[in-house]
C-alpha cells in the first residue's frame, strides 16, 4: 500500500500543521471491471455479475438506511455510524445542530482472529518522479 506524507490543514484540529501518512489511490475499479474479472475467474458471465451487483447495491442501501447491519460472507459487516458533536447532557442534544454526518463502516470478516484484508499488507512511501 503506497502512501504520501501530507500536512494537516484544518486549523480546528489539534494536529494542525503536523504531518501524517495518507493512502494513495491510483485507480477506481468500476463495476464492469469487477464483473469482467469475476467472469475471467469463474463460470459466471459478466452480465450476470453486473445484475447481482446492482441487486446487492439496492439491498445494501435499503438495509443500511433502515439502520441494519449487513454481514457479507468473505467481506465483513457494513453499518452506518452517525458523527456528532459532543454535549454535556442528553437534554442539550439537538439532532439538527449536533449531527455532522454519517459514515459507512466496514468491519472486515475475521477468521480465527485474523482479518484477511490486513494480512501481508506492506507500506511503501510513494514519491513522485
Question: What is the element layout, followed by pairings?
Answer:
Elements: E1 2-7, E2 19-23, H1 31-41, H2 46-65, E3 70-72, E4 76-84, H3 95-98, E5 99-108, E6 110-111, E7 114-115, E8 124-125
Parallel strand pairs: 1-8
Antiparallel strand pairs: 1-2, 3-4, 4-5, 6-7
Helix pairs in contact: 1-2
The CA-CA distance between the termini, in Å, is 18 Å
Tell me, what's the shape?
A: extended
Please provide the count of β strands: 8
* N to C succession of SSEs: EEHHEEHEEEE
Mean pLDDT: 92
Strand content: 25-35%
Largest sheet: 3 strands, mixed
Question: What is the share of helical residues?
Answer: 25-40%
Trace the largest sheet across and list its strands.
Answer: 2-1-8
Low confidence ranges: none
Structural class: alpha+beta
Query: How many helices in DSSP terms?
Result: 3
Query: Which radius of gyration do the C-alpha atoms yield?
Result: 20 Å
Give a verbal description of the structure:
The chain has 129 residues and is α+β, with helices and mostly antiparallel strands. The protein contains three helices and eight strands; from the N terminus they run E-E-H-H-E-E-H-E-E-E-E. It has helices at residues 31-41, 46-65, 95-98, and strands at residues 2-7, 19-23, 70-72, 76-84, 99-108, 110-111, 114-115, 124-125. The strands form three sheets. Strands 2-1-8 form a three-stranded mixed beta sheet, with no helix packed on it. Strand 3 and strand 4 form a beta hairpin. Helix 1 crosses helix 2. It is extended. The two termini are 18 Å apart. The model has no long low-confidence stretch (mean pLDDT 92).
Amino acid at each position: 500500500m503506497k502512501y504520501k506524507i501530507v500536512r494537516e490543514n484544518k486549523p480546528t484540529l489539534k494536529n494542525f500543521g503536523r504531518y501524517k501518512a495518507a493512502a494513495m489511490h491510483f485507480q477506481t475499479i468500476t463495476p464492469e471491471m469487477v464483473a469482467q474479472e469475476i467472469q475471467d475467474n469463474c463460470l459466471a458471465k459478466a452480465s450476470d455479475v453486473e445484475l447481482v451487483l446492482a441487486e446487492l447495491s439496492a439491498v445494501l442501501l435499503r438495509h443500511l438506511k433502515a439502520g441494519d447491519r449487513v454481514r457479507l460472507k468473505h467481506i465483513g459487516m457494513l453499518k452506518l455510524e452517525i458523527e456528532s458533536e459532543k454535549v454535556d447532557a442528553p437534554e442539550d442534544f439537538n439532532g439538527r445542530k449536533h449531527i455532522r454526518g454519517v459514515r459507512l463502516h466496514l468491519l472486515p470478516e475475521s477468521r480465527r482472529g485474523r482479518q484477511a484484508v490486513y494480512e501481508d499488507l506492506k507500506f511503501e512511501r510513494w514519491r513522485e518522479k
